[in-house]
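Mods, move this if it's the wrong board.
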Amino acid sequence: MFDTPATALSDDALLHLALGGPKRSPARRLADAESLELSAVLVADPVEISTRYGITPARAQRLWALGEVHRRLIHRSAPQRPYLRAPEAVYALMAPRLAGLEIETFWALALDSRSRLIGDPIKLSQGDIDGTEAGPRCFTRAVVRRGAVTAIAVHNHPTGDPSPSAADLAVTTRLCAAGKTVDIPLVDHVVIGHGAWCSLRRDHARCFA
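Not the wrong board. Structure tokens:
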């Protein structure tokens, strides 16, 4: 196994190594589960994983700890104040934070005059994107406090499909209008799925008219 580069190992092989145990153990059944994605396993609640697949609490906590180590390493290695001039850059910044989440979360990115991120991404709400917490007032207040020149909205789709819903388009239109009132234009709204993203600026430019 040590002769094989880690990058050449499949997800289930990596889980086999992390969990250990005999071939017929519950831990191995978890690693072989075709319906699971590696990212989903690493962010899942350890109690749920232990209960659903019958693995020991210690092994479930090991997986959870590996996921947290991975997230921290990504965040620490990320460049300071990244330039967010394209949706690809937004995806690279936010996908590690949102990978595997089972609920929808809504974020604001405050940018300076050179399209660099000001501070950390701002988590505004979780749950229904059309809820009041993710409304224009909350969004504009957050980016104004950061001294933003422009702003980007980001949210995830737990289903994995980044195609925007009617509610996504409506929220984008309202955020764009609110940004104009405080002279902080909304330059994009990026929806993040599993390994994919959608830029509403590119695909639904009418929301920004």
